[in-house]
Amino acid sequence: MTFIITFKGGYEQSFSMSNIIIILREEKEIMEFSELIRLAGVLIVIVGFALKLNLILIIFTAMIVTGLVGGLGIEGIITTLGNSFVANRVMTIFIFIFLVLGTLERNGLREAAAKLIGMIKGSTPGSVVAAYGPIRAVLAAFNVSVGGVAGLVRPTVMPMAEGAIRAKGHEPNEEHMEALKGMASGMENIAWFMAQVVFVGGAGGLLVQTTLANLETPIEVELLDLAIASIPVAIVSVVLAAVVYFLKDRQMMKKYYGNDSKKGEGK
Q: How far apart are the C-alpha atoms of 230 and 236, rounded to whole Å?
């Protein structure tokens, strides 16, 4: 069977069925190759990690190669980066928080935090973690982010908990410190998760409102009503977590340091 195809300009050419099948196969192979080549960025990331190369170099190389093979070009890549930065500029605030905290740590933030808590009589690691909960909840209620575990717990709360142990004349036990890291991180997550919905218009409240509206039986709720209903939930959650962590730390203090909590105070 022969087909006659007329091209623009009146030019005609005849093709047999076998010729058409071969052409279609070649076109399919070209399309498959063009789709696969767009995954070159993924291959670069895999090879880069396998060779343990510089992380930033790997990401930027993969980004540029993916943009080029995808047909964006250099101008398109730069435009996409600029638009993404402008659209998500609030997300980059944590970078500045880490820079500030890094500078403070370098200039004695951890030592100052430990010294401060050592001046408070009767302080314990559990009381430090318990006190952090309400403070974090109030900040979350006003949608104030302080960097979470990496931004505040590690450089401030943990040194204060360690300082409370040293103030009693004890050398911090490694297992106890690991447990305190978990408790402090847990308090951070509970306070932030439960109290962020109190902020009207925050991401947490919008998520809950959208989820309820998309149920099979939609539930319409105003953000203000949702925030008011979340206040007692947040308070109970934080208080309960604070009590649990405080009591758990008392048990660990007895386990690792004995009942002599005044050891070394007169030295």
A: 10
